[in-house]
């Protein structure tokens, strides 16, 4: 009896690995989208502040903008760190080489992983991929909120005569 229990749709371990890889790719895409939003907000904020100190309403909104920016960046960094940590743990437990370009077999061994070990590691990878996907989606959501807050901040600065 192995740890892998296919559902009614008959998923194989290769299907699960493919699903995890897709989630990781989407996680990277979401993090890139969040980074672009945050870079635009940072550039706009720096440009506006370089033009002169905005009025009091804009200065009051600046910590809110900075807080949303920090939350979004934190989610993106946490997603990346979680994924790297889980991949490192799996490689350690399975004895896999550190170079991701080599085949997924234990280092210095010609035998494949035991089915039970492989299935447990696949579940860990899939779980981590889902967590990273959720974190990167939160990063996108917060970066969009940061963009909206930036627009309000810019309007407040313009209305204050800055």
Overview features:
162 residues, mainly alpha, disordered N terminus
In short:
With 162 residues, the protein is mainly alpha-helical. It contains 3 helices and no strands. It has helices at 13-50, 56-94, 115-159.
Largest sheet: none
Order of helices and strands: HHH
Through-space gap between termini: 70 Å
Helix/strand-derived category reads mainly alpha
How much helix, percentage-wise, in residues? over 70%
| Number of distinct helices | 3
What is the average of the pLDDT values? 81
Radius of gyration: 22 Å
Strand content: under 5%
Given as residue ranges, the uncertain stretches (5+ residues, pLDDT < 50) are 1-8
Outline: rod-shaped
Number of strands: 0
Describe this structure in words.
- The protein is mainly α and 162 residues long.
- The N and C termini lie far apart (70 Å).
- The longest helix is centred in the last third of the chain and has 45 residues, at 115-159.
- It is built from three helices and no strands.
